């Protein structure tokens, strides 16, 4: 494994990286597959996984009346549209809550390409959601008024200024700004895309976000597990392990004000930089009448309708020459289900001449060598892997496992130069701390019957029938698909350079802002690895 120094100027020629400025060469996937590497765990790093208290000024409500707060931006399906979201009014938690009326506050955004005057105006819709528990002694919650406004007709790669609020109340936010994505094309890409998962709101989280901001991303991907509000009872008592501390709870409770705390803390970043979120297991948050995912589906705006999806759990969007697919692991995904049929349509509509890069994201990883959540989502892999492989997905980002792991190119547990690179970044900093045990460590292979996720159901993880682990449920050593694994908090940055080369860099929280924990060029080989449409064309040409 090559641990590179700072890249000053690099030119890619015939699979080699030449570096100017005295830096060390950066490996590429063309050099792989790599021998598996495990970075030894530093015991001193498990601290600081402590949630920010409600007294921390970074999470306290600072606006008055119906002034906007928790402002965020998310992308629509392509460059000429974005969503602006915010909250007005105060949430309530208690035994006698009275929801606010969304109709009493307007949803207006004024925007333009100069700070003053803001000559364009858009209106949207608003809602409140409730988190209700039909059990004595449990407190209920109702949110502030959540506003979502879609801006359309925007120019690509352009800085826009905006403010949001209700003009009739003179309740405006301050003027802020965002930059639109480049137009789709093989030479047009955002400079830097930050990728983070399992974030929470701990002191580790604050380090992760501080480091992430220092890398000046143009877009943030959050691959599930947002606030960890479900590690709390409704009275605000929290624990690192809910089931350990509260085994007698009649339902898995949540403390919804943690969502408001998170929105306030993140506003400094996501009111300027678009954030795209996919659901994780900590967003399930079951309540009365079996309702789930209320906070997740209400607080964020998703380009579901724009991308032909009927759900907040799966959608797609373009960012320059990259097509992103966000998939839901906690909603039905088999071939007969809506999500699978939508995925087939979405993949079939991807034009690789305009968006050469195809990146997929969902929360629980298919390829992970850690004991935590080992082969937990095998049924989803069995259902969807062949489809994603046939369309030439280049990179997959996951979270869930609280560690970092990067794979060699792999398909169906076999090293394959045309398979995706799977990257697990579930190391954002949450209070459940890091995963440190590996399924291949002596005595750590889990009992197969314990591995399926109860919420998803199904059992598909049987013993391997071929390869180094044939006849076994786990490897005896770090699997060959696992190129690098390390138990450290951090975040990653994706920099797509052109239609075949992209630089992936992972930064660890314990390091300085500029020090690199892992770095590799991910290289597409479209002539060697034809995608679905090209394979069909070649078959007809040969027949």
Automatic annotation (TrEMBL):
Keywords tagged on the record: Glycoprotein, Hydrolase, Iron, Metal-binding, Secreted, Signal, Zinc
Stretches assigned to coiled coil: none
Record-annotated Purple acid phosphatase N-terminal domain positions: 68-180
CC cofactor: Zn(2+); Fe cation
Catalytic reaction annotation: a phosphate monoester + H2O = an alcohol + phosphate
Subcellular location: Secreted
Signal peptide span: 1-23
Residues annotated as domain Purple acid phosphatase C-terminal: 472-518
GO molecular function, one term: acid phosphatase activity
Residues in Calcineurin-like phosphoesterase domain copies: 192-404
Any one annotated GO CC term: extracellular region
EC number: 3.1.3.2
Enzyme class, first EC level, given as a word: hydrolase
Family in the record: Belongs to the metallophosphoesterase superfamily. Purple acid phosphatase family.
Oligomeric form and interacting partners: Homodimer.
Name of the protein: Purple acid phosphatase
């Amino acid at each position: 494994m090559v641990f590179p120094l700072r890249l000053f100027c690099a030119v890619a020629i015939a699979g080699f990286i030449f570096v100017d400025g005295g830096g060390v060469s950066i490996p590429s996937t063309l050099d792989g597959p790599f021998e598996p590497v495990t970075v030894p765990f530093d015991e001193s790093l498990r601290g600081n996984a402590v949630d920010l208290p409600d007294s921390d000024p970074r999470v306290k409500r600072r606006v008055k009346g119906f002034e906007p707060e928790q402002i965020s931006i998310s992308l629509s399906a392509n460059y000429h549209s974005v969503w602006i979201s915010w909250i007005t009014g105060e949430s309530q938690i208690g035994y006698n809550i009275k929801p606010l009326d969304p109709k009493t506050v307007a949803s207006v955004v004024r925007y333009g390409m100069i700070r003053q005057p803001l000559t364009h105006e858009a209106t949207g819709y608003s809602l409140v959601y409730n988190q209700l528990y039909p059990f004595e002694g449990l407190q209920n919650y109702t949110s502030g008024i959540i506003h979502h406004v879609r801006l359309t007709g925007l120019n690509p790669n352009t800085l826009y200024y905006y403010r949001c609020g209700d003009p009739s109340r003179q309740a405006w936010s301050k003027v802020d700004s965002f930059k639109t994505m480049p137009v789709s094309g093989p030479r047009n890409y955002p400079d830097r895309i930050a990728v983070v998962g399992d974030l929470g709101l701990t002191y580790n989280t604050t380090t992760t976000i501080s480091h992430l901001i220092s890398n000046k991303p143009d877009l943030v991907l959050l691959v599930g597990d947002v606030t960890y509000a479900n590690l709390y009872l409704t009275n605000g008592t929290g624990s690192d392990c809910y089931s350990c501390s509260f085994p007698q709870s009649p339902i898995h409770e949540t403390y919804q004000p943690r969502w408001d705390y998170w929105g306030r803390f993140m506003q400094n970043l996501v009111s300027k930089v678009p954030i795209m979120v996919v659901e994780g297991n900590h967003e399930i948050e079951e309540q009365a009448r079996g309702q789930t995912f209320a906070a997740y589906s209400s607080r964020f705006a998703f380009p579901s309708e724009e991308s032909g999806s009927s759900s907040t759990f799966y959608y797609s969007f373009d960012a320059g020459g990259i097509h992103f697919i966000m998939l839901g692991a906690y909603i039905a995904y088999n071939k007969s289900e809506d999500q699978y049929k939508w995925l087939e349509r979405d993949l079939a509509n991807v034009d690789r001449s305009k968006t050469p890069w195809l990146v997929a994201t969902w929360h629980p990883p298919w390829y992970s060598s850690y004991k935590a959540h080992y082969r937990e989502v095998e049924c989803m892999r069995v259902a969807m892997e062949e489809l994603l492989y046939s369309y030439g997905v280049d990179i997959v980002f996951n979270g869930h496992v609280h560690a970092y792991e990067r794979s060699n190119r792999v398909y169906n547990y076999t090293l394959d130069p045309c398979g995706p690179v799977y990257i697990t970044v579930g190391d954002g900093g949450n209070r459940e701390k890091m995963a440190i045990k590996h399924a291949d460590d002596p005595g750590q292979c889990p009992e197969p019957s314990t591995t399926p996720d109860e919420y998803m159901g199904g059992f598909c993880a049987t013993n391997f029938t071929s390869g180094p682990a044939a006849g076994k449920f786990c490897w005896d050593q770090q699997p060959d698909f696992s190129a690098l694994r390390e138990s450290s908090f951090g975040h990653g940055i994706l920099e797509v350079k052109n239609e075949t080369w992209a630089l992936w860099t992972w930064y660890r929280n314990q390091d300085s802002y500029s020090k690199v924990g892992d770095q590799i060029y991910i290289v597409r080989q479209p002539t060697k690895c034809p995608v679905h449409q090209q394979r069909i064309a070649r078959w007809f040409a040969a027949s």
